[in-house]
Request: fold
Amino acid sequence: MTQNDAFEFIHNDALLASSLWANIALAGVAILLFIYMGRNVEDPRAQLIWVATLLVPLVSISSYAGLVSGLTVGFLEMPAGHALAGEGGVFSPWGRYLTWTFSTPMILVALGLLAGTNRAKLATAVTMDIGMCITGLAAALTTGSYLLRWVFYGISCAFFVAVLYVLLVEWPADAKAAGTSEIFGTLKVLTVVLWLGYPILWALGAEGFAVLDVAITSWGYSGLDIFAKYVFAFLLLRWVAANERIIGRTDSIAEETTTSSASPVDD
Reply:
């Protein structure tokens, strides 16, 4: 199908189209709101958190525009064994994976900076997250083998487990030392609970067992995005704006730790 065919397919299904336009509208509102909320932030670390967080709706509005225009969607013939095999092209909004590949690392960067974690832990979380998104895309686009779709899905979930380990085990201790454990705990729970919804929707939607139709699945993803991105970002930026001194102190602690570990030990 052409891009024009994809555009018509989307807009002939009001439920599907509304799931995409709603995110475009909310991302636009979020961008303006977050710019306003960060207007007086002066601490460099707080500014970095703000920039990383602002990139989330910026990426989303670009990606959802690609989806609603038909640019980043396709129609795939599912392999033998899939519930929709032999039913013609199945609508595949693969552009969502572009959103997640670029936006979810920014969420983790913001959380890592809030927790005052070190570069190694931050790099681990971000790279595992990117691996999760890319292998998720591979699962969605694999049409030669039904088994390999689920193999890629399993690999993606394995990457996700590594991200969860950092969020649930490594960073809470860092946040406690940095004095940001209360807000970090709230955002951690919000992130973990909502992010668990994505692989569940994949398995239940047209890409997996096809229990849910395309429009319902799309609204499921959009609803998760709204809370995991915009609500998350609002809560984070509101706290950062009101507690800039704590963020600055976290940066000082990190610098002192780095300097101390780099100092030579006297004989």
Notes: The two ends are 73 Å apart (CA to CA).
